[in-house]
Amino acid sequence: MLQYLEFRDKQSTAFSDAKRSIGNAAVPRPCPVRVRRVMASGTSSSCSGLGPSLPHLWDATKHPAYVGEMEAPPLERKLVAILAADVAGYSRMMGIDEEGTLATLSDLRTITDALIAQHSGRICGTAGDSVLAAFASVFAAVQCAVEIQRDVARANEELADERRMWFRIGVNVGDVMVKDGDIFGDGVNIAARIEGLAEPGGICISRGVHDHVMRKLSYRFEDLGEKSVKNIAQPIRVFRLICEGGPAALDAQETLTPL
User: Do 194 and 247 share a domain, yes or no?
Assistant: First the structure.
């Protein structure tokens, strides 16, 4: 006698025969609804559910492969450098000229996305004019921020004043949760709040980032003190990256690679 399970398709009222042999090591997929017995004579009978007469079928549902399909994957935690950027005055520009603003943003995003990839960063989120990226290296995150502002300033030189866009950038280092490629947690929120403190075309960093790079990169930093920001319990120590001559002069400064 051969016994096998029939399963109901979750998306349909029709039955689909899984026809998994009881002796087979393969594990049936979830939602068993009927057991069919096929007799040597060719006749068959069926019963609903997994009754006490078939305890081995019930044991099969406890197989690790079966249980794994029912459980959500665990959240991964990582220590990363987080770069948050958005366009200063973006809503105002959209109100004046939507198509022109979107075209300019698209051109500048080509620059930012290429630089993030060049510094081994990963884009974790974009919404409207904002960009969120994660880096394994604090040095790479800061250098990427510097080069974004430098190249955006160059691109703006070719645009009319009313079409020029300036990014504000914040960089933080912290422990984050990773799920489906997105990052979450206070580290992300702090990066976004620091970005809001930056001037258009400027870069602000947290104390943790400053401690990593202050003696290893050639840029100067201004201590802005502790800042209380929305939805963050403790004040944040913030530093502003200083470049003589503004963003356009950033390429004239010495570039150091992470140690």
Answer: yes
Domain that holds residue 176: 76-252
175, 49: one domain: no
CATH of the domain at 87: 3.30.70.1230
**Do 114 and 199 fall within a single domain?**
yes
Res 172 pLDDT > 90: yes
* SS3 sequence of 47-105: EECCCCCCHHHHHHCCCHHHHHHHCCCCCEEEEEEEEEEEECCHHHHHHHCHHHHHHHH
Q: Please count the other Cβ atoms lying within 10 Å of the Cβ belonging to residue 205.
A: 32
Residue with tokens 């200063």: 88
Whether 8 has a pLDDT exceeding 50, the answer reads no
For 32-75, the pLDDT digits (tens) are 545 455 455 555 555 555 444 445 555 555 555 555 455 666 77
What's the number of CA atoms in the CB half-sphere (13 Å) around residue 55? 1
Q: Are 243 and 219 in contact (CB under 8 A)?
A: yes
